[in-house]
Structure formats: C-alpha cells, structure tokens
Specification:
The chain has 681 residues and is mostly helical. The chain contains 28 helices and seven strands. It comes from Amblyomma americanum (Lone star tick).
C-alpha cells in the first residue's frame, strides 16, 4: 500500500534542522551496520587457519641472526643501507684486521671451519678413512707452508733430473717433445697445457696455452717475482752446475705476458691440424709423441679430434721458443720449478694470511686427490647429496626467472635462445664421496716436511696416470675450485649449470628446511636468480642483439641512473665500469626472487593473518637482500654498496608499502623503471 505524504510529514521534511537530523541518523545507522558487518567477518576470519610462528631451533637462529644485525634506530626509509649494514660493519671492522664484504666473510668463516676440521683430525676417531687421508695430506702441506724457510737446496733435489735432462737437449724438437711429455704424462704445465679430457662427444685431447711464471705463482707486491727468483736460483748452480740469468728469464716472461693475454678461442678441430703448427714437427711426429704416453684405449690417429686454443697463438708460442735457444730451455726449467715452489713462495708471503693458506692447501690437496671436494662436502653436510637443502630454492627461483613476460623486451631470436638455455640449465650436482686413491702406505711419507715438495711431485705424477686411464671433464677442476673457494653463485657455461658454493650452503645464508622462505630467498635466492639471468643475458650476446634490444637496456640503465641521482644524489657512472647488462641483471634478480617468494606464500593467502604476516615477510626479504651489499671498505666502495643495496629496492613499490615510506612518485616524482616492453610481435 502506498500512502500519500501528509501535511504534517511534509512540514517535517521541509524543516532544515529535521532534514539534518535525519541525515545524521541515517549515516550513523549505516556506519554501525558496516562496523557490525566487519566485526562479524573478522570474528569469522579469526576462526579460520593462521600462518603459525616457527619454533624450531633453526628458525630461532635465523631470527636471532637477523635481529643482531639490524639497526632498529636507523629509519629504513631514507637510509635502508645503514638500517641493515651499520651493525655488521661495526662488528666486522672491530673483529678483523682485514675486513671483507658480507659475502667474503662467510667464505672466510668456511675456510676457518675446514682448516679446524682437517687440522684437528686424528686416527683415533676418524669420521672415515677417506677424510683421514685427506686430512693427513692437508696437514702436511699446511705444516710445510707455516714452517720457517727450510733448506732450499734440499727441496730442489727432486727437480735435478728435470734440469739435467732439459739442459742436455740440443734441438727444438727434443725440447718440444719433452714439453708434451711433461704436460700429458706428468701433469706439469709449462708454456703449453696438453691433457686428455672427457667431452660429451668422446674422450679427446685438449691443447691450450700454459701460464706465465707470475700467473703460476700468483705473485704478490710484498715479494716480487724477481726477488724470489734471485733467492731461489742462487741455489741452482750447486745442483746443476749451470748458472741461470734471472734478467734473461724475466725478459722472456715479459714478452710471454703479452701473448698469453690474447683472447681465448677454443675450438674442436681435426687432429691433422697439428701438422701445421710448426715446420719442425710433422703430423706423424706429433701422433708418436702423444701416443707414447696414452693408454691403448685412448690413443689418437688421423681420424681423431682435438680441442685447441687459438691456433695463431699456439703457432706464435712455438715460433717464439724455437728461436730462444738455451735461454728458452732454462725458462722451461724455471717453469717446472715454480710449478711446485709456488708453495714455498706462498709461505714467504702469506705466513699470517690464514684464508690464503687454507685456499692453497685445499687446491694442493685436490690436485693429488680429486675426490677432496666430495669428501669435504660429506664432512660439511652429512648427506648423500649436498644439494638437498638448496634444490627447492633453485627450483622456485628458476620457475620465476623463466616466466616468458620477463623477456618480452627481447627480439624473437634472443627470446628463443633464452628459453632454450633456461630449459636445460641445472644446479650442478655435488654428490659426496668416501674414497680417494691415496694409499694407506703413503701416510707415513706426508709427515716428512722437509721432503714435501718431492712427495707432492710424486703424488701428482701418480694422479696424472689415473687421469689418463679415466679422464675427467675439462670443467671439473674449475667447478671444484668454485665449490670450495668461491663467495658467489656462478654460472658455468661449458656445463650450462649453476654452481652454488659451500660457503652459501650454511648459515647464515642457507637455513634448514622449515625456516620461513624469505630468509633464504633474500640471500642465496637472489644470487641464484642473478646466475640464471647471467646465463641468459651473456656478455658475448651483445654482438647479436638488435638495436632495439640495446636501446631497451640502455634506456633502463638511464632510468635507474636518474632514480639514483634523484634519491641518492649519485650517478651509477661514478661507481665503476657497470654495464647496462649488469645493472639490469642485479635489479631483475630481486624482482624475480620476490615473485618466487610471493608464489611460495600463495597457498597461505586464505589465512586470517596473511596480510600482516606478508608485510613482515617482505621486510625480512628486503633486509636479507641488502646484507649482500654490506661492505667495510673504502668510501668509494661503500658508496657503490649503498647504491646496489638501495637502488633495486627503490624501483619496487613493495618496499615503500612494507615500510610505509613516501618513496618514488610522492617524493621524487619519478616513474618506476621497467624494461619489459614488447619489441616485436
């Protein structure tokens, strides 16, 4: 039923105060209704699932590690780097005579841990006989390096036969055959590095340039190569009856440095090309000298293939030594000496540098015990595979990096190349081992410190014979070094794999399963993403990028540079030789890992406390990321660290939301930088 408005009602509605009162009542009623509805919904939500707090010991350690570093008194909005890194800088500078970055600090701690473990190993309770054998050799090397300078003349004795044989040679073909024999059969590299390697196609030879004396010694300013050679060679005449001219050796060294700096262009070719390297050696002579030391199953013929360095460079090196005569022979003998006497050099320049000594000890041990890395990995991780904890992180980050939209700025060719690389790239597997070819009978010999170099040479020769029977892949030693020595996640192009080093497989980088993902995504997750992006956006790819792609990269770089100058009052160009590629990769690494973190929390979105928990997770993620840039170095390096902590985060709206900061558009009137714009369809 519809009623008409009466006169009284009309009068009431026409009165201003009555209308106002009715409006107020209506608004109040609406407000009360909304509040009641929200309370009802809130009450219902609180009855649903919650993201619970982690009470595991590993979680408590992760929370504590971060809390002890964060400077809560520093406002993260204007000074995020100080908020994250200030306490760490103070702690590191106060506790170390040689402060390093956050990344290098964990490598240093790993070196100390390995040194403590191996040096403290005894035969009473060895974890395994394999680790005990590694420890004994390691201990012998360490003792040799740390002892006072021993009698050089005694240490030279194992090299006397090499010197006499070389100095009695009268023709270049004789010398060259000896170079091949030393490298292939004894593992002693001079100006050439010839080895038998296992390639995907087959086992074949590899011929590369060798190393200069300076590179072999890793010469330091504290003891120049000239001064050390003068001290060492003063003992040689008594051993060989031949005086060595140090000046002539250094002249050859200086010329060789220029040649060895040539760009490396390794290619697989027919072995018949060996006959064209020098007029002094025909192909059949090459095959004879090579096959003399190869086992029957690996002997070569004219149908074989060889992987060779720049052919022009190898020809130049052979021609160079051909005309040197006796000086060239003497230089080769010095190469043999310094291949092992680099250990003596190390003890003279690094007596107080524990990290350098431990690194050298590990490399020496690996060169005679190829399973060293796997045996130490077992000691560190105590599991059949060292990848159990890290693989789930790699998998999530890989999925995020591989999203097609991330490469929409690329043209079709490069986009296809990126997809192909990401489909096949993998985390390099670090399985652990329990065996080593080191015999029990050898354990007594390693205690003889005075004869260590001779024993090392003997073990190296024995190991080379094993490698001729069972060749290794050419990249295995490089990856083993990276696993134990590196302080960064690396991409290895030859194996198309990501190498995550041991220093990042332990706290505070990697925590046990169950710790909230933001703790690992912010550190090792970002570094995994960066390595994957480096696999896709390679340096040599710039030669095939289209003008549009290069323009997109430079535009992104320019946008970030403007953001840096506006927000931080510094240009990226002031920080060193940072290529647009590097800046983009670092920035995109954070974005890709953030997306991986977001995907990891997707199953929890229905939780009642998701919003509040997500904000806390974001804060932790951003803080952990910035730790990667923490540095205690020069003012210029600190400035670069500050920029590369804060600049990628300034380009993320999520940072200002998490910390409630007035960033970007409100304060700086600048757009976010974005490279993901399609170039062709």
């Amino acid at each position: 039923m519809i009623r008409e408005i009466s006169a009284i009602t009309e009068t009431v509605l026409n009165r201003d105060d009555s209308i106002t009162c009715l409006i107020v009542l209506a608004v109040a009623a609406s407000f009360i209704g909304i509040v009641a509805l929200l309370l009802l919904q809130g009450g219902q939500a609180r009855q649903g699932p919650h993201i619970g707090d982690c009470n595991r010991e590993s979680c408590k350690r992760a929370f504590r590690d971060l809390d002890l570093l964060i400077n809560s008194h520093a406002d993260p909005c204007p000074d995020f780097y100080g908020h994250v890194c200030h306490r760490w800088q103070q702690k590191t500078a106060a506790s170390s005579r040689n402060p390093v970055t956050f990344l290098r600090y964990d490598r240093r701690e790993l070196m100390r841990h390995i040194n403590y473990t191996l040096s403290g190993m005894n035969s009473a309770k060895p974890a395994s006989f394999a680790i005990y054998k590694v420890a004994k050799f390691y201990e012998s090397y360490e003792r040799f390096v740390r002892m006072g300078t021993a009698s050089v003349s005694e240490a030279l004795l194992p090299f006397r036969d090499y010197g006499r044989k070389l100095l009695n040679m009268s023709t270049f073909p004789q010398v060259f055959r000896y170079i091949v024999q030393l490298s292939l059969a004894r593992g002693i590299q001079t100006v050439l590095d010839i080895s038998l390697n296992k390639f995907p196609e087959a086992v074949s030879l590899r011929l590369l340039r060798g190393q200069t004396l300076s590179r072999k010694m890793n010469a330091k300013p504290t003891l120049s190569l000239k001064n050390y050679l003068t001290q060492l060679i003063s003992e040689v005449p008594g051993m060989l009856g031949h005086r060595i001219n140090v000046t002539a050796i250094l002249d050859i060294e200086q010329k060789l440095r220029k040649y060895m700096a040539w760009e490396r262009r390794e290619q697989r070719q027919s072995i018949t090309m060996l006959g064209h390297l020098t007029a002094d050696m025909r192909l059949n002579e090459w095959l004879d000298v090579i096959n003399a030391d190869l086992p029957q199953q690996h002997k070569v013929n004219t149908e074989s293939m060889i992987s060779i360095d720049s052919v022009d460079l190898i020809q130049l090196l052979l021609s160079f030594f051909r005309v040197l005569g006796k000086d060239g022979v003497v230089y080769l003998f010095v190469q043999i000496l310094l291949g092992e006497f680099r250990f003596d050099y190390l003890r003279r320049v690094s007596s107080k540098d524990t990290e350098s000594i431990v690194s050298s000890c590990l490399r020496a041990t690996q060169s005679v015990m190829p399973n060293t890395r796997g045996i130490i990995a077992y000691q560190l991780f105590r599991e059949p595979s060292g990848d159990t904890a890290i693989y789930p992180i790699f998998s999530k980050v890989h999925d995020s990096v591989s999203i097609p939209s991330a490469f929409s700025w690329m043209a079709v060719f490069m986009r296809h190349k990126a997809d192909k690389t990401l489909q096949s790239v993998s985390l390099y597997p670090f399985n652990v081992y329990s065996q080593t070819p080191f015999d029990q009978a050898d354990l007594g010999a390693v205690y003889k410190t005075s004869s260590f170099l001779g024993f090392f040479l003997q073990m190296k020769n024995r190991q080379q014979l094993i490698l001729l029977e069972e060749p290794s892949a050419p990249h295995e030693r490089e990856i083993d070094d990276a696993f134990l020595m590196s302080s960064d996640v690396l991409y290895h192009d030859q194996s198309n794999s990501i190498v995550a080093p041991a220093s990042m497989r332990q706290e505070p980088f990697l925590y046990a399963e169950g710790v909230p993902p933001e703790y690992v995504m912010g550190t090792i997750g970002v570094l995994l993403a960066r390595a994957l992006l480096r696999a896709v956006i390679t340096i040599n790819a710039s030669a095939v990028w289209s003008p549009e792609e290069r323009f997109a990269l430079f535009s992104f770089y320019g946008c970030l540079d403007v953001l840096g100058r506006t927000a931080l009052n510094v240009s990226i160009d002031r920080l060193g030789k940072w290529e647009p590629r590097d800046v983009y990769i670092w920035t995109q690494s954070v974005r890709s890992t953030f997306n991986a973190l977001k995907a990891a929390y997707e199953p929890s979105r229905a939780a009642a406390n998701y919003d509040s928990y997500w904000v806390l997770a974001l804060k932790t993620f951003f803080r952990r990321f910035c730790l990667l840039s923490c540095s205690v170095k020069s003012e210029q390096q600190n400035l670069a660290s500050r920029v590369f902590c804060f600049l990628p985060l300034l380009n993320m709206e999520e940072l200002s939301n998490a910390f409630d900061c007035p960033y970007h558009k409100a304060e700086y009137s600048i757009e976010y930088c974005d490279l993901a714009s399609p170039l062709d369809k």
